Amino acid sequence: MDYQELLNQVLEEVRPVLGQGKVASYIPALARVDPGQFGMALATVDGELFGVGDWRTPFSIQSISKVFTLALVLARDGDALWRRVGKEPSGNPFNSLVQLEYEHGIPRNPFINAGALVITDRLSSLTGDARGVLREFLRAESGNPSVDFDPVVAASEAEHGHRNAALAHFMAGYGNIENPVPNVLEHYFWQCSLAMSCADLARACGFLARHGRRVSGERLLTRSQAKQVNAIMLTCGTYDAAGEFAYRVGLPGKSGVGGGIVAIIPNRCGLCVWSPGLDARGNSVAGVEALDRFTTLTGLSVF
Amino acid sequence: MDYQELLNQVLEEVRPVLGQGKVASYIPALARVDPGQFGMALATVDGELFGVGDWRTPFSIQSISKVFTLALVLARDGDALWRRVGKEPSGNPFNSLVQLEYEHGIPRNPFINAGALVITDRLSSLTGDARGVLREFLRAESGNPSVDFDPVVAASEAEHGHRNAALAHFMAGYGNIENPVPNVLEHYFWQCSLAMSCADLARACGFLARHGRRVSGERLLTRSQAKQVNAIMLTCGTYDAAGEFAYRVGLPGKSGVGGGIVAIIPNRCGLCVWSPGLDARGNSVAGVEALDRFTTLTGLSVF
Amino acid sequence: MDYQELLNQVLEEVRPVLGQGKVASYIPALARVDPGQFGMALATVDGELFGVGDWRTPFSIQSISKVFTLALVLARDGDALWRRVGKEPSGNPFNSLVQLEYEHGIPRNPFINAGALVITDRLSSLTGDARGVLREFLRAESGNPSVDFDPVVAASEAEHGHRNAALAHFMAGYGNIENPVPNVLEHYFWQCSLAMSCADLARACGFLARHGRRVSGERLLTRSQAKQVNAIMLTCGTYDAAGEFAYRVGLPGKSGVGGGIVAIIPNRCGLCVWSPGLDARGNSVAGVEALDRFTTLTGLSVF
Amino acid sequence: MDYQELLNQVLEEVRPVLGQGKVASYIPALARVDPGQFGMALATVDGELFGVGDWRTPFSIQSISKVFTLALVLARDGDALWRRVGKEPSGNPFNSLVQLEYEHGIPRNPFINAGALVITDRLSSLTGDARGVLREFLRAESGNPSVDFDPVVAASEAEHGHRNAALAHFMAGYGNIENPVPNVLEHYFWQCSLAMSCADLARACGFLARHGRRVSGERLLTRSQAKQVNAIMLTCGTYDAAGEFAYRVGLPGKSGVGGGIVAIIPNRCGLCVWSPGLDARGNSVAGVEALDRFTTLTGLSVF
């Protein structure tokens, strides 16, 4: 396939929806972003890279970081991890707390905030420096040594982080947080603040397209673990729209409120699309549309 | 591929788990079933049929019926259907009622009981005879004119159906049930009581492998609608184990407490496996294992 | 005390709020009532009767009936009753269903609808005719042989009774309903439809002011049981405003959406006030105000 | 009445249940207490003091402190306080978080932990030193200048305080906490650690028996505010047993997991009873029994 041509065509097709949706506004650093931006990148498993639009512009990766911390912990803990966090979808957000109570402090999956906090907690225990290890990993996989945190965003997250603090303390009350809650929160807020471009992210998620092998060829995850991550992305990766995303796009994907979405075509490539305008469920309007167009044009969807 | 050889091998590999799990016991008619039984069938999109074990033995299809009623309503109502039922996973069963209240009587998806009741209600409105239309459809698609309801099972369901009655009345209070509740329940209990074999079901779900075309070639669903059904099966088809099933099997599937599971390999075949012993989440132990073996042997999983 | 004078003065003091609030509108029979009406009656433990305003006008007693069915069952079952229903307040109405699920089908108290359905169910089992026994009791206690059901209201309740049907089936699924659900519902809807005046109700609740003795002198409840009923009225008798009612009025009371409220001054009298305009929590605006005035004028409140 | 004689008799009557129940064990400092202890004190509105058993032994007042912080804030804020916390019972503890979410961070009443945290937060804002102001107040009202915090208990509370931290952060996310969460928690844990005897507490709650007047004659609360506090004690003061307590004791009361209970007889006296063994709902077994005996012997109950 001529990927560059495909990306060009996708850009043409999504032009009508560019600027639609609302930029995340719960922290000022995100609210200031120009909503009309759009970028998309594709990195093949062999290292080729294609892009279109603002594909070199760094943005706040936010919840996309959860994919990478999950992989880093799974690589070290293996199935023991699943004693502390589930692998199942979680229903509407209203129920997050009651569900956590009903299931005695075990979050439903690693992509809801409670689950991601457990993962960051565990990564801290395993490495002593969750955010540092994450940054090193992303620099290596993206091939971009300047990938870094945004301290303004991290500080903003901390200031508006009461709900995450509540979740962490709640789980700590059940014994499901190992480190002091303020430390866990700090690492978590920093990981969310990472600034990366579509190019960076498309490459960085390549290990999932390569069934667990890093860009260096070294194995991070077993084949089976890579399948676990992909399956969780498909069923839980796009907030309360996983069913809709599965139908329209049909690929394992993970979105963030910064407007980015990564998606995986196993054996072929990692994809990343970015546009800051979000729909009511927190996913990039133009991003979902672009991935929908891409899988329709290529026939590469799962179903 | 030599499908018969594959099925034979799968049977050998699942032998160690045959008889594991617990047979559904909430109604006597199900509790009496011999737990050691196992059958598996595969029907290609071109009409070839393969089977192994007890693949000709009829069993109670239970919730598998929800796939077919969904398709029959979607074919008639199109996207208007999604105003009355969602397409998203639902979290743990404890939350089903509070979720229904929070979302004003709109069930999360067509495969939880509340959603299936809405579908049956709608099929009644559209056809005047939900259960009759369903039986005709399944006879035609399976090529087996003797497919029929089991009146003993249907009566048993009705006798133990208080929770379904509660759900139906609850939704009726929100105006999301069109027909008298007792009528909806009656059709629902009958549809669950349908007795079919693996051979019947593997053929009957072929229209989803053929992107919406019936065995006659006639189109039931548009391509897009067939994708919708498959996506809902993948994300919501196996009760509270959809994430686990996605990872292990990686195919759109739907299970029933009778011990059956249907699964779809788009463009290739419909599959049905049956073994009555259930795991803690209500899915056939040997059934999930068999599908896991099958996709591992063939590499035909989604991820 | 000169009760007549007191009631006259209360009427003067509540005039400014007469007509405030909204008449219950979920069934047409209630929605048609003139909101400007107001009546209040006081029946002493020795049989004297005083009244003011529309105190002789019958209105729909609705949930006030729950006090009487509770007493009739408690008289027969004693403490065994508390195995099927609790005695504790229930929090906001949103939680009624999740609470019922969490507590395995045991309602929190006899005055939420779920609890009242259990009581009616039990009264049916004990007497064979819950509504008939209730009517006889109320005719005897009120001294008014024409107390009767309103078939239009009863039919209306049944037509809009899906939520009560859901509750009853839900509890039946837990084994906490003994009779067929439709029978229980029918008796329940009839009991809610009883039409009585302030005069009737002030006399009819006299047994609670007499620590359990009926108007005939015969004992219905033990002293201790009468205290139980009074305590439940104080803590759970006015929907989600029991705390507010306890502070403002400080008497055991029970309200209904028809706009009536009964209240008990132990050893002295039964009170009933009626005015159809309801506040946001379902209690009569002028009714609560009148009881507030009355206890302030007499200093007869609990606190 | 001969109060001393009454207390002596109550002690005789409760002897059979002394030592029953389980001492609170979530923090070591409480778990070490001898469960066989029992004390009871009565302080009349005129300053007379009576006592029996271990009535001079200090114990951890825990949640009884919530009565005093409520009064101190209500005295300063008046009805404005009710914008930040409700006055209604809250149902079973399982629902505390979902209720808080449903009601947008406004706790149901000042005696559940969430509500007490709001009160402490407000007292901090109003006085700059919530715990210090509370200690001064209790020293003055009890007439015991040595009333003080127990630093071991306070530290223990902090160590096991994740659930309270979760509640505070959760409400802070809704804007219903004004001060930094760690500060609020610190003051809260200190206030719970106050060590006082039955004699101290019986006197200290006298202002509620005097309709708001302090021991000095100075008015703390208006008559109406004192009624508000009493009403909340009656409907919400004994965890999930308020209905039971209202029936058995029939007085405004507040219990703590240290085994203490204060109760108010308006116009007459403040009562305090203490015995460390708790029932399943967290109230002192012998304490409730003693108050039950006392009101039965004196006929002073509400009902």
From TrEMBL, chains A, B, C, D:
EC numbers: 3.5.1.2
Q: Which domain of life is it from?
A: Bacteria
- Binding of substrate occurs at S63, N113, E157, N164, Y188, Y239, V257
Q: State the UniProt keywords alphabetically.
A: Acetylation, Hydrolase
- Which major enzyme category is it? hydrolase
InterPro entries registered for this protein in UniProt: Beta-lactam/transpept-like, Glutaminase
| Pfam families (UniProt xref) | Glutaminase
One GO biological process this protein is involved in is: glutamate biosynthetic process
GO molecular-function annotation terms? glutaminase activity
Oligomer status and interactors: Homotetramer.
Member of which family?
Answer: Belongs to the glutaminase family.
What name has this protein been given in UniProt? Glutaminase
